[in-house]
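Researcher: Hi, I'm a grad student and pretty new to this. My advisor asked me to get structures for two proteins we've been looking at. I'm not sure of the right format, so I'll just paste the first sequence and hope you can take it from there.
Model: That works fine. Here's the first sequence with its structure tokens right after it:
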Amino acid sequence: MRARFFWLIPALFVLLPAVAQAQRPLAAAGAGSASSARPQAFDILGLTVEGVTSDYTRAFVQQTSKLSVGQKVTLPGDPALADAIRAIYRLGMFSDVKIKEERRFGQGVYLVIEVREVPKLADYKFTGIKGGDRKKIQQQAPLYKGSPVRPSSIERTRQIIKNYFAEKGHPLTTVEVSRTVNPDNTLYLDFQVDKGPRVGVGKVIIEGNKAVSDGKLKKAM
């Protein structure tokens, strides 16, 4: 029994480093190198994608990363990891992307691509405006149920609302957006519109006109 006891102690010291480096971040958008250790070359032994439920999306992310099993990478700091992050972000499907080191085995490494999906639109509404106006704005708004909701789409819709009512004599229209994220990572939007006072033109003064009558100019305006 004593001999077996002394053989177990070295085995534990061999296993501990591998456990300590599990899920160590290697690259993330906007981040620099995660470690100041001397770079070493490794073969990718495994590559998985976490944060999505669809097998198709998982395979698509892996393909977009252009990382593959058998590929050599230098850790930390391989440019291929940063390139993979940028390529996945450009898809417009994810709000966060990271590449982590799961574990090492000899001169090989297992990597994990961790993503967070952009919330999909559950529904949206406009409050503070009438049904006719609401319908016309909906026809222009770049919002589609079941599709990812990007900040640019929300801002574009805000601007469409303001422009719409400015043309109707409400240049001081304000729009506040209320966002509700559901447990299933879908998003509900409420565009709260305050048209403000109607602004009309009281009097038009034309100066320097000698070609036609002021009346004709005013009719053309």
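Researcher: Oh nice, that was easy. Here's the second one.
Model: And its structure:
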Amino acid sequence: MCRSVIIPKLNNIGLKKKKTEFCVIIFFINLWNIFINNFKGIQIMKALFLILIFFFTILSVSNSCSAPFNGTYTIGSGGNYPTIDSALRDARTRGISGAVIFDIIPGLYNENIRIFQIPGSSAVNTLTVKSQTNNFNDVIVNNVLVSGSNITIRDLSIDSTVEISGQGNSIVRNVDVINNKFNNNNINVYADWLFSLYDLNFTGNIDIANLVFYGEFWISSGRVDTVLIKNNTVNGDLTFYLCDNFKLENNTINGNLNFENPCYNFEISKNKIVGDFINGANSFKISKNKITGKIITSGELINNFISGKLQYNGGMNHVLNNTIYGGAIDTPSVTIGQYLNPNYFYNNIVINPAGGTAINFDSLISDHNDYYNGGNISLINYKGTNYNNVQDFYNSTGLDQHSVSKSVSFVSPSDLHLTGFSVGDLQLIGIP
């Protein structure tokens, strides 16, 4: 007689990696007991039959234990996983077959989050790691590294640096960082000469110390490309190296906006920049921003408030409908060099509050502007010649036929909305 073999009943199979290992170990122990206690005295075919039964049982249980993730899983005390790391390790082993959410129960998690490529992930099969309450004050984690695609990090309070890196994968894409609090820590985004990052989204994050994007080469790899940065608060600098196809919208940047090495195709709109704007390329579209600091660019500049000087270096696009309040007695408010293509400088208010030159330029099509320096000499410098007023400048060059020179009342030097006698002034309307 063969002894009966008791197969242990396992609940919640597949929820934890330790249960997976336990399943396999138990079945191998039972298989060994069959050989020791039942193989003697029975027919060979019967033994083989029992072996086959247990082989397929083990295979079935093992598959159940390692079934891909799909749905929502809780992390923390009383959850499906005790730690974030244990959940992520299991996901890397089992993969995912649908959209997966790791809901983190409120608490302090003194661990580093490491998210690498998850098997089975896609634009549809995504992994989201977030606070269960959707409130970043409820879940505090240490630093975060993302080096995989189709990942969302949201609603967390992060106590150290966040890094998004292409290292380890040829392409990382579709990474969203949304509504997190960074507690004055940095975000670093890296590509290198083999690995590129595409389709990144940074939206609604606060208390970022510095946000830096690093590219390496302008070839098929090493790029940081197609990125949305929207509704964030950065308490330091926002810096870009070799980046392409970025959209910056409605951010508060309490530091400098820096572009190092070639960066192209940026749309920069509705941001508040309390610092300098340095080295914007001629493929930039810069509109509706409030900039408290100098701006050095060659991009298209439309409808901005600039409390500082404007300088164009290397190429130029149209400059339309801007208010520029800056400069010094020996520094023009606006400096524009010589350019071959006709570009328009229209409908701008240019004020040098220190009494120096309002604009210094060599080649432009300019009209319907207001240049003012308090009535001092050298209001305009054109190709090295000073002009004390707009009329003399027009008579000599034929430029700025409809421009004026008059004082303007602003709310403050850093808030360039019109107030007082300037509200409704028809001479400040520009082109009808």
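Researcher: Is there anything I should tell my advisor about the second?
Model: You could mention this: The helical segments are 17-38, 44-65, 84-94, 390-397.
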